[in-house]
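User: what does the whole thing look like in 3D?
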Amino acid sequence: MSLLEIENLTAFYGDFQALFGISLAIDKGETVAAIGANGAGKSTFLRAITGLVNFRADKFLYDGETLSGRQACDIVGLGIAMVPEGRRLFPSLSVEENLIIGGYNQRSGNWNLARVYQMFPKLEQRKDISGTALSGGEQQMVAIGRALMSNPDILLCDELSLGLAPIIIKDIYDALPSIQAEGVSLLVVEQDINQALAIADRVYCFQEGRISLSGKPEELSKDQIAAAYFGK
Amino acid sequence: MIEWANTIIQGILTGGLYAMFAAGLAIIFGVMRLVNITHGDLIVLAAFIAMVVIETTGVNPFVSLLAVIPIMFVFGYFLQRGILNFTLGDDLLPPLLVTFGLSIVIQNLLLEIFSADSQRLKAGSFEVMSIQLTEGLSIGVFPLVIFIVALVMIIGLQQLFNRTRLGRAFRATSDDATTAQLMGINHKHIFGLAMGLALILVAIAGVLMAVRTNFDPTVGPSRLLFAFEAVIMGGLGSLWGTLIGGIILGVAQNIGAKIDPGWQILFGHIAFLIVLVFRPNGLFPRTRDD
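Assistant: Here's the predicted 3D structure for the full assembly of 522 residues, as structure tokens:
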């Protein structure tokens, strides 16, 4: 049985339909990548899962339980955490406070401050300064650590590489295997196709609010992906 | 000379009361970006609730706080969740209009129930006790107590905001309510708690004010004005700033009253304008990179 199973999900912003019948499943411990161009609906899809966007779905099961209609603030307590696009650290909170507030729901698990600092040693030296005073890459580390502090079963990562230098992106992605090793499922939204293909067990390609292609990275040809990414 | 020293000391002590008015206003604005026009009327409401508690139970005004504080907290929580949460958004105008309307409603309800008579809560001989500092200079025990309560209040609020789980949730929600929800924070509940907390401060300030001066249902708006002036002079977002702002206002008013009793309020406003001319963001604005 899949950990997260979604069938025929549609979402609107007012009159504008952003998603047209998305079906997607993630198994426990699996890493799934959602790729696609700007405006393809990837972020909207993550926001729907976390309850920030209203949606309709034929089936929306998490751990066998239906999740439709839950408030956003209840979702994280069930084990679904998100690293939002653009990091969105809290400027009034220090680095350490940003991490601590990630554990606000007090869900039990293996993650704590020490583990996060072990994964990102740079953060410990800078724990008392404001989160927004860090470099973009360090902010991304805080955002990932903050999400992990909630001890999630599924971690949703929205555009981890956005606006970061390639060398920093590598640092960030190097941290993902140690998260996978904990048995955490990952749903990674990326515009950087190669990065996504390198870490994912399965890939979904979004195009204009629909899924245009899905499969295992090794089974998909470059041409197929290009067609699914850009349309014909 | 000693008379002027006396004037200034009394002014500083009065500033403690203004700081209490201002602290609640500052929290409401700080957490919810809500300008609470009904703040002064809530202070008066707390005073009238205390009056009813005292009349029915016969307790001392300070003991009445045991009832007034929880009543105001619960009232604040449900006021926020039942009405004010629905006014919040990108536009600052709806909360202004709704709290302005609430101000009129509360004033008229109080007028209807309690009439326009001037009231006073009596705390017995404690009100007039004083400590002599030197020849010709003494300070009232009660004004001093008010000032100390204001100090303790601000220190306590600082600790709450900086060191506790709830304080972090307040700050995070204030920064970014959407992302706060991803942390499992129910922003509507947090807003309710912030309003409840602010009305705890209002309850304390209202009862202390009612022991110190006369009040009637129409004095709310002028308390609101003092609170605003203290908050703006101190700098938005700074709790210590509200104390300094309150003190400046209190001292200026006392100096004005010393020169001519009719100038008391005028001097407060003039001090406010002078501070604004030189420091448009107030004395201790919180620096924030948004």
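In plain terms: The interface with chain B takes residues 50-52, 71-74, 76-77, 81-82, 84, 88, 90-93, 97, 100-102, 104-105, 130, 132-133, 146, 150 of chain A (CB under 8 Å). Chain A has one domain: 4-230.
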